[in-house]
Design a protein that fits this description.
It is built from 5 helices and 10 strands. By secondary structure, it is of the alpha+beta class. Strands 1, 7, 8, 9 and 10 form a 5-stranded antiparallel β-sheet that branches. It has a 5-stranded antiparallel β-sheet with strand order 2-3-6-4-5, with helices on both faces.
């Protein structure tokens, strides 16, 4: 996924690990601003009001335009927020917030144990993250006869099209979103497939829209 500069989580994820007798619940979500990140932190605190600690970390933006934040929320200085943020930054994601909720199990972990536990909690939640990218996209619409529809569907898939709407009437009307750099190739292939009979109309162009990426295993 090196070709994508602005990776974000597609949706919220929550995981839990046990370290000695303590529960570490990592709640992760996509956010578009510092305000949204803080709102998510507040929501998590409300969901787990009896927890010992709520350690937040977030990364807003990408590249040189990044805002980061973390706190230890009562844990020894440097043992919780910083390791959580370091793992989050290492994921390559932006516009992401994570809150690690700890229920103390009665056994102290020590500074090294805490650093590892909070880092591991973030690593675990990242395993379940579905990845998307902020990309310039173009949404097009076209009408195809039924006899070509199966071939057109395969063509859209091969060009990583995100189908938004399909209407089956006398013919099939399709609305589909593409990354900008794949639109021209698709329209050309569609014209060749249909011998020039199927024409496309540009419905919308967006300089930065959320586009799901199929392969999320690298996280």
């Amino acid at each position: 996924m090196e070709q994508f500069d602005k990776l974000i989580p597609l949706e919220a994820v929550e995981t839990e690990i046990m370290v000695v007798n303590s529960r570490f619940i990592a709640s992760l979500a996509p956010v578009g601003s510092v305000e949204q990140a803080r709102e998510f932190v507040s929501e998590v605190k409300k969901r787990f009001p009896d927890a010992s600690h709520h350690v937040p970390a977030f990364v807003i933006g990408h590249g040189r335009s990044v805002i980061t934040h973390c706190t230890d929320d009562g844990e020894p200085s440097g043992t919780a927020g910083r390791p959580a943020l370091a793992v989050l930054q290492g994921s390559g994601l932006g516009n992401v917030v994570v809150v690690i909720t700890r229920y103390f199990g009665g056994t102290k972990l020590g500074t090294g144990g805490l650093v590892k536990a909070y880092g591991d909690a973030v690593r675990e939640v990242l395993k379940g993250v579905k990845i998307a990218a902020l990309l310039p996209t173009t949404t097009i619409m076209f009408v195809t006869p039924y006899r070509l529809y199966d071939q057109v569907a395969r063509l859209m898939e091969s060009h990583q099209g995100q189908v938004l709407e399909t209407e089956f009437m006398e013919e099939v009307t399709v609305t589909v979103k593409f990354m900008d750099d794949l639109v021209e190739a698709f329209t050309s292939d569609l014209s060749n497939l249909s011998a020039g009979q199927v024409e496309t109309i540009v419905v919308e162009q967006n300089h930065e829209s959320v586009f799901p990426i199929a392969d999320s295993d690298s996280q």
